[in-house]
Amino acid sequence: QQPVQSPQAVILREGEDAVINCSSSKALYSVHWYRQKHGEAPVFLMILLKGGEQKGHDKISASFNEKKQQSSLYLTASQLSYSGTYFCGTLVTGANSKLTFGKGITLSVRP
Amino acid sequence: DTGVSQDPRHKITKRGQNVTFRCDPISEHNRLYWYRQTLGQGPEFLTYFQNEAQLEKSRLLSDRFSAERPKGSFSTLEIQRTEQGDSAMYLCASSSRPTGRETQYFGPGTRLLVL
Question: SS3 of B109, please?
Answer without folding.
Answer: coil
